[in-house]
């Protein structure tokens, strides 16, 4: 199959914007978060000892089956380089390293208060459309919603723990942490760093006209605008809609911004 890399990290941190930029390159295929990581985990589970026939499946077979999943999913893709996006890939780095020794993972991150703010802003914008993020529950407050998404199994909490595992893990040399703030304020620098990281020749991207729209998916999820990217790549300063005590609760969680907390060998831009 094509050369494969992965986009992972935190939600509302620029992964769709990054995919929209990468797909401008006719040699590349990239998009919003997809189903492969979920299928990957399901297959691993079904090949474990909980299946009475797992005695017939050794690690070599597991590797072939899992690699075959990628081959089958992208069999009709003509791109030379594929970027598969899912927040779960940071949690699968040891397995990804075994399956694809040359694959790299780009982890999109953003200061956590603004991730929570971004999700809450979507909820309040779509006030008549309960979101799948909260089980289509129309009730709750900004506090109950924030507590749900930052829980260890929540939309933010789970990817955050996976991100930390990847950043401090043995495979961190194949990880590039891309800050949302860098991507939106200096997209040219960010893309040069990514091309250098994956060892691909540079492409002239159009940062003034970026377009990616999966309206049908977002509306089905009850969260219109969740993956929509239009117009120019630029930072858009704004005031938070979170109460101050809630905003300040997460203000020190961006460990990647502290040089003393970043482990040796981890690249952060």
Automatic annotation (TrEMBL):
GO molecular function, one term: transferase activity
Main enzyme class: transferase
Keywords on record: Transferase
Signal peptide limits: none
Entry-linked InterPro entries: P-loop_NTPase
Documented EC number(s): 2.8.2.-
Coiled coil: none
Top-rank taxon, per record: Bacteria
Presence of keyword Transferase: yes
Protein name, per record: Sulfotransferase
Organism in which the protein naturally occurs: [Mycobacterium] holstebronense
Highest classification ranks of the organism: Bacteria, Bacillati, Actinomycetota, Actinomycetes, Mycobacteriales
């Amino acid at each position: 199959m094509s050369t494969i890399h992965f986009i992972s990290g935190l939600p509302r941190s620029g992964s769709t914007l990054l995919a929209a930029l990468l797909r401008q390159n006719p040699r590349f295929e990239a998009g919003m978060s997809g189903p492969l990581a979920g299928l990957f985990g399901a297959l691993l589970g079904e090949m474990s000892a909980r299946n009475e026939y797992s005695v017939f499946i050794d690690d070599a077979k597991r590797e072939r089956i899992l690699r075959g999943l990628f081959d089958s999913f992208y069999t009709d893709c003509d791109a030379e380089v594929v970027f598969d996006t899912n927040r779960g890939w940071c949690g699968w780095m040891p397995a990804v390293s075994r399956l694809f020794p040359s694959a790299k993972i780009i982890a999109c991150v953003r200061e956590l208060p603004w991730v929570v703010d971004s999700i809450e802003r979507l909820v309040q914008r779509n006030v008549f459309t309960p979101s799948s993020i909260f089980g289509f529950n129309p009730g709750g407050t900004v506090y109950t919603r924030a507590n749900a998404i930052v829980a260890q199994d929540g939309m933010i909490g789970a990817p955050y723990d996976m991100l930390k595992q990847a950043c401090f893990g043995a495979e961190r040399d194949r990880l590039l942490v891309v800050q949302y703030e860098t991507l939106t304020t200096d997209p040219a620098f960010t893309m040069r760093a990514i091309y250098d990281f994956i060892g691909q020749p540079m492409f002239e991207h159009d940062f003034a006209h970026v377009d990616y729209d999966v309206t049908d998916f977002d509306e089905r999820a009850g969260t219109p605008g969740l993956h929509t990217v239009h117009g120019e790549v630029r930072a858009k300063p704004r005031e938070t809609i979170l109460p101050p005590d809630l905003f300040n609760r997460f203000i020190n969680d961006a460990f990647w911004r502290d040089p003393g907390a970043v482990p040796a060998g981890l690249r952060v831009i």
